[in-house]
Amino acid sequence: xxxxxxxxxxxxxxxxxxxxxxxxxxxxxxxxxxxxxxxxxxxxxxxxxxxxxxxxxxxxxxxxxxxxxxxxxxxxxxxxxxxxxxxxxxxxxxxxxxxxxxxxxxxxxxxxxxxxxxxxxxxxxxxxxxxxxxxxxxxxxxxxxxxxxxxxxxxxxxxxxxxxxxxxxxxxxxxxxxxxxxxxxxxxxxxxxxxxxxxxxxxxxxxxxxxxxxxxxxxxxxxxxxxxxxxxxxxxxxxxxxxxxxxxxxxxxxxxxxxxxxxxxxxxxxxxxxxxxxxxxxxxxxxxxxxxxxxxxxxxxxxxxxxxxxxxxxxxxxxxxxxxxxxxxxxxxxxxxxxxxxxxxxxxxxxxxxxxxxxxxxxxxxxxxxxxxxxxxxxxxxxxxxxxxxxxxxxxxxxxxxxxxxxxxxxxxxxxxxxxxxxxxxxxxxxxxxxxxxxxxxxxxxxxxxxxxxxxxxxxxxxxxxxxxxxxxxxxxxxxxxxxxxxxxxx
Amino acid sequence: xxxxxxxxxxxxxxxxxxxxxxxxxxxxxxxxxxxxxxxxxxxxxxxxxxxxxxxxxxxxxxxxxxxxxxxxxxxxxxxxxxxxxxxxxxxxxxxxxxxxxxxxxxxxxxxxxxxxxxxxxxxxxxxxxxxxxxxxxxxxxxxxxxxxxxxxxxxxxxxxx
Lengths: 491, 161
Known about the structure:
With 491 residues, chain A is of the alpha+beta class. Chain A folds into 4 domains: 4-85, Beta-Lactamase (2-Layer Sandwich), CATH 3.30.450.20; 138-243, Beta-Lactamase (2-Layer Sandwich), CATH 3.30.450; 251-336, Helix Hairpins, CATH 1.10.287; 340-488, Heat Shock Protein 90 (2-Layer Sandwich), CATH 3.30.565.10. Helix content of chain A is 41%, strand content 25%. Chain A is built from 9 helices and 18 strands. A 6-stranded antiparallel beta sheet of chain A has the order 7-6-11-10-9-8. Chain A has a 5-stranded antiparallel beta sheet with strand order 2-1-5-4-3. In chain A, strands 13-15-16-18-17 form a 5-stranded mixed beta sheet. In chain A, helix 5 (245-300) packs antiparallel against helix 6 (306-337). The longest helix of chain A is centred in the middle third of the chain and has 56 residues, at 245-300. The relative contact order of chain A is 0.05. Chain B has a single domain (2-160), classed as P-loop containing nucleotide triphosphate hydrolases (Rossmann fold), CATH 3.40.50.300. Chain B is α/β, with parallel strands linked by helices and 161 residues long. The interface between A and B is medium-sized, with 31 and 25 residues. Strand 3 of chain A pairs parallel with strand 2 of chain B, so a sheet runs across the interface.
């Protein structure tokens, strides 16, 4: 049954062989049959179970059935290997098995591919369903456009609604004008066609278009084309559209109003600059008129008749009034032109200083001035705030009622986010009316009754405004007035 | 220089490329024609390391043996196991991985062969399954690294023991 016998010792050295493929005697057995690289370890192996044993000897491949036995002589072990050469039959079997296995592998591969495809299709179906739901329920209009022709292929319900269309065909007839930047001649005015041209192909830039919808209503739309590769749709562009007509018109309106406001601000600044320059430059000639009319009165008083003296007095009085008017105007203009300088100020000391300067006139007019609660130390522009107290105190004293015992009371209150200051008097008060007494040159009384040009409160309002505060008043005719101004804690 | 012999058994499903890996690694030969292994084939390769010469006896088992009851007989005395699967057929990994976890207690590595047939994304997916070595018997890619990997494991096991 076995074709060949090979004998070798325990070191693997071949002693005998009648196998033509293992011709060398005294050579190592594992050179031909690597299985025997560790003979000792192999002793437990049943070589009959290792079938077939495939080995390459020279350039040829062999399939063997092996069996072996051993015997000992003088403590030396000798092995007899029996070889059955089954190369030809196993070559046939190998070919058949390879063919079978190849088919099996191909079958496995096909099943695997089929399973993958089924999974992918299921996923795609699920994705498609989700996408369809999203597209139909989104508040954005979505339009599909053929990349090659620019033709609108389909649109979601919202897109049709936005353009007042019933069918996709109606969308195709809508014309628009390019609205962001300069119109470009190469644009086809058909809806969105320009958006797929080569230079824009890979952009997802948003732009605004203006058009008359299918119902001929003028609308503005925000349009965004999504890069086709991002959605892995090779032949379609996806255009997202939103109606921004109201938003756009509001934006436009706001833009116009801002422009108008800027013009007002500019003209106001110019006017203030003019008032400052004019009042400043007018003071010099008025002073000259005042000086020379005084000089004329002193030097020529005895030479003027009654009428001439009267005329000279009129010139002098009007020059004085004009000087006062121009000075107040200059003050008012200066309030706005001067930079505000905030610093921590003890208002109690500041107010006491102001009251001291009014002490004499207050005594003359029999007016008592009282600080009810001690004023705090806060951050203000001390020079300007002093002016506010001066103007309000001056008014309170000026408009004191001579028929009763007059008083002026100054008080303050600390609120959460601001300080409030009150100047109250029991003077003549004011009649209710539509006149805004905080406007420049606003007077409620005749010039002859009370001196002043009506600039004091206007100056107060400007200063309080610069402090980001508010000023208002309450007054009852015949009973007195109460002026309140506030200064925020955080300036 | 010290000489050590190590029996390394290659195993895996039919058609994953065990014989191709063995032939390419030992003899630098590769054939496009698929020939199914029938039983056992043994190749010898000597690897010289810094202080040791490793004689690697690579036992290449037919895929059918892997599925048979005789398998334990073949891996008896093995110092290391190289489990091979076909990267282009991921299910061959799942079978192998389960078998290694359940039945093998000697040093072993898992090798994804036919890496030249898969994409880098698929390779990354397999890396997530703790596949450390990727080879291509066709191009020879990764073979030295994989066998060096099992040698290192076997040697470190020997030192430890």
